[in-house]
Design a protein that fits this description.
Purple Acid Phosphatase, chain A, domain 2, six-stranded mixed beta sheet, 9 helices, 28% helix
């Protein structure tokens, strides 16, 4: 049987105020065309379908129409919630989407209660088991382990052990006469960040080793890290990555969907199919004159300009008029202390909220790991989008 693995669409994502919905529509049309051209049995979407837990009606319309078009071609559509999605909303619409042939999972559940999606491939009549694991925040990993794996509260340990306990339950129904797949939205140890992930839900406390995935799995379809990559493990573990550059940190990534062919007794064969519809993001460095002189090379790329000269009044207008696709202007650190930088960012490395809070605590003489842990918990509660089960 054949299926597509994709993830991290982030539909509704804007960049520096620029609406990208038309661009995102082109990406989804290309993914749909690839699915149809390759006559796949299924499309697996491993989370972060939307950029926000409350997507706009336009973003929802685009996603729904894409999923319906796939389902209308008798393609099995299986989708899980990521940390940017609203799992509770996914669950609310599940009875309706199931009727349409679109199978969405907002919360983790036991294998015996829908935690494994089963179907027969239309092309080969092979049985397929897909163990589905939507994103788990640290707090709700505890709840999931208690409910799904019957892990006693007093035995609850690190996040990776909780995920292992849940996966042990979800993969028990795997059988040798079926194609067995795990689909999850998480950070795998050794994975390389793509550049646009939410830092608070990608830190070491959220890492799980690839050893949590069973050797019986023909393929592990992961979402969350935006870079296309293979994680060494006893079974094939792959991130498809985002199909377009979500942020400037991803400007050098390769954007693909993974076409996977698998049979019960045969190792999975993975083919990367490039996605070309998304607009390129590009960081360009130089003086104002050099940046303007290079405009013939930029095409329709979205630009982040790093200016290597002192800022002056009117510098934004001088750059934006000839370079209308500029989304951000930064002053190189060597020139940050000279001239006026009003309204222009200084090109300094980004710092996470946890790092900024730690620096603040240090500046006022507070050195207590419990305070930092409470901040991490509060930030996790505020940024997570999986509602309470």
């Amino acid at each position: 049987m054949k299926f597509l693995h994709t993830s991290d669409w982030h539909i509704g994502k804007t960049l520096k105020g620029r609406n990208r919905l038309e661009e995102q529509a082109g990406v989804l049309r290309e993914i749909t065309r690839i699915a149809l051209d390759n006559d796949v049995d299924a499309v697996l979407i491993a989370g972060d379908v939307y950029e926000n837990p409350a997507p706009t009606p336009e973003a929802q319309k685009l996603v729904v129409r894409t999923l319906l078009r796939l389902a209308e071609q008798h393609i099995e559509v299986v989708l899980i919630a990521g940390n940017h999605d609203n799992g509770a909303t996914f669950e609310a619409y599940k009875p309706l989407t199931d009727v349409a042939g679109i199978h969405i999972y907002g919360h983790a559940r036991p294998a015996a209660n829908g935690g494994v999606h089963r179907f027969r491939a239309k092309s080969s009549d092979e049985y397929v088991n897909v163990a589905v694991l939507p994103f788990l925040s640290q707090r709700y990993a505890v709840r999931a382990a208690e409910i799904i794996a019957n892990t006693p509260s007093q035995n609850i340990g690190a996040y990776d052990q909780l995920v292992r306990d849940v996966l042990d339950n979800l993969t028990k129904p795997f059988t040798p006469d079926a194609v067995n797949i795990v689909m999850a939205h998480l950070t795998c140890t050794g994975g390389v960040f793509g550049g646009g992930e939410r830092a608070a839900q990608s830190i070491m406390e959220y890492h799980v080793p690839a050893a949590v995935f069973p050797v019986e799995a023909h393929y592990v379809a992961l979402g969350h890290l935006h870079r296309r990559q293979h994680i060494p493990a006893a079974c094939p573990v792959h991130y498809s990555g985002s199909p377009y550059a979500v942020d400037f940190g991803e400007q050098n990534n390769t954007h693909v969907v993974c076409l996977v062919q698998a049979s019960p007794g045969t190792p999975a064969k993975i083919t990367d199919i490039p996605i070309t519809s998304g607009r390129r993001l590009r960081t360009v460095e130089g003086t104002v004159a050099q940046l303007i002189a290079g405009r013939v090379d930029y095409g329709e790329d979205y630009l982040r300009l790093v200016v290597t000269q002192p800022a002056y009044a009117g510098i934004r207008d001088d750059l934006l008029e000839p370079l209308p696709n500029t989304l951000e202007i930064r002053i190189h650190p060597d020139h940050a202390g000279t001239g006026s930088t009003a309204g222009i960012a200084v090109d300094r490395p980004a710092r996470t909220p946890a790092q900024l809070f730690s620096d603040y605590c240090h500046s006022i003489g507070v050195c207590d790991d419990r305070v930092l842990a409470l901040f991490d918990q509060l930030h996790d509660d505020l940024t997570r989008s999986i509602a309470r089960p």
